[in-house]
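Handoff note, outgoing to incoming analyst
You'll be picking up this chain. Sequence as last confirmed:
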Amino acid sequence: MSNIEFWNNRYKSDEYAYGTEPNAFFNEWIDKIQPGKILLPAEGEGRNAIYAAKLGWDVIAFDNSIEAKNKAMKLADINNVKINYFCAEFEDLNLEKNSFDAIGLIFAHFAGNKRREFHNELTNYLKFGGYIILEGFSKKQLDYQKKFNSGGPSNVELLFSEEEIKDDFKALETIKLETIETELNEGLHHKGLASVVRYVGKKV
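Most recent structure output, in case you need it:
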């Protein structure tokens, strides 16, 4: 099964795989920033995009799954907000450099060289004074999967370490970087005790 087939299968049911409420860390930090233009890569079913739009952000989001887009647009209609959502891979992006006030990377996992390449490219899309807000599973999550079945990739190369994130975003000022244990309650697939890396960086 291809990556796109996997995600289309996950998102095709009526139920929202990761719920309809925003990620708690994203919620906390986006509330602190003056609304502007935000990019949400690998946005899935739109829970963070819709929350940002309700705050007044101009939202651009993308994912490689058409089923994810369909669910996100349905959620936008329910909440009476507008978002710009398109289907694409990272490699297909052709966005304006220095054009976003914030970028949200919530459980957007990519391996090795791809991860570094994409994170570097996202830094270029950020305006000076703009923020990246990131939460993803740490490399410790493999143990939490076995004990608590709390979600995340099963390939350690897709999981994050603080050192990798700090290096990927070395062009940014680090505002926050930590690995913590947290109780996830995000739909069917992110539920239970988990280990995550949280990062906020600012382009200065």
